[in-house]
Fold this protein.
Amino acid sequence: MLIAVPDLLDATAVASVRALIDAAQWVDGNVTSGHQSALAKRNMQLPEDAPEARQAGQIILDALGKSPMFIAAALPLKIFPPLFNSYAGGQAFGVHVDNAVRLQAGTGFRVRSDLSITVFLEDPERYDGGELTIETNFGVQQVKLPAGHAVLYPSSSLHRVEPITSGRRVASFFWLQSMVRDDAARQMLFDLDSSIQALAAELGHDNGQVIRLTGLYHNLLRRWADA
């Protein structure tokens, strides 16, 4: 599944996040890399335990909790605290697969990475290059969204960040463990939920067929979910 979540953050929220992280001390991005990623990664990052990262991350988490589209698409069980990175001056992140399990430093909190999330925090016209390139079953997809928009994609997919040729790309990135582990099942549930919402808007939530389909959705979720 590759799903864009438009306007996750409004302009005010983007400005608040940027005010926090722009004033923070950035470090080499390999502080959170596994062995494979360290060979391909050239960027800057905020330390996980930076207070600015935690405050900015909470703004993003609050927005995720209010996004029906995100919840329907991800069916989140656990979310790794948002991290922040930037690319400039030719920096890039070569082809890699995200680690299967992410452990929050200094805690016992761990997440199986079913889905990866990128929240764009810089308008695309302010930098060249920096596309998030994801290899999918339908070919290579490149993603470069407006500030405040997010994209969800399988953590198991091969992906990369293209080199920056001008300007600076700033984003938040993190992972989540879904209640539904299987990507295909999660995609079917999202498609079914989207159809139910469209039918309910047309026919009303009390329509018999809408009620039957809603029951089907919840019975499938009950079968597949680990909660």
